[in-house]
Design brief:
Elements (H helix, E strand, L loop, with lengths): L1 H34 L4 H29 L8 H9 L13 H19 L7 H35 L1
Length: 160
């Protein structure tokens, strides 16, 4: 189990690096969308917003599987997984993210579903702007919490 915890901690750090790269693409795509009349940049922003949350959700799924022993299932498993990460599992782990971070990320979770199921030309530009503008704040909130959790995992691996 110690090796699995160390691997999970490394995976969290690696995925955060990738999510940060996606964040840069969101910001650049939005900048280009605002400075041109080319709405294809909005498509790129939407795709990268989907990737932003998808990367975080991959981390959450790994934590649920490796540490908690199970990830939620059913129709609303994405929502339940985000909630699971904001809750302590007594005797197993602290909350992975704070309630305020969960709230910030919930709109990205919700958008992930929209981006997968709606033609991009039907996306609401005002919502894209709100999400593109809020992605950095969401990342600034979740990154230190996930890095602290990675440190927790390494401490657990070292003490086992």
């Amino acid at each position: 189990m110690n090796q699995r915890l160390e691997q999970l901690a490394a995976s969290i750090r690696n995925e955060l690096t990738e999510v940060q790269r996606v964040l840069g693409r969101i910001e650049e795509g939005w900048r280009r969308a605002r400075s041109s009349a080319d709405d294809y940049y909005l498509d790129a922003v939407a795709l990268n917003l989907h990737g932003f949350y998808g990367g975080l959700e991959r981390i959450f799924e790994r934590i649920a599987t490796v540490v908690d022993g199970a990830r939620p299932s059913g129709e609303h498993w994405h929502q339940a997984l985000l909630q699971q990460m904001a809750e302590e599992v007594p005797g197993v782990r602290p909350a992975v993210i704070s309630a305020s971070t969960r709230t910030k990320l919930d709109e990205f979770r919700s958008f992930r579903h929209v981006a997968r199921n709606v033609y991009t030309f039907h996306l609401d530009p005002a919502r894209l702007e709100r999400l593109a503008s809020g992605a950095a704040l969401g990342f600034d909130s979740v990154k230190p919490e996930l890095l602290a959790f990675a440190e927790f995992l390494e401490q657990q691996a070292g003490s086992g």
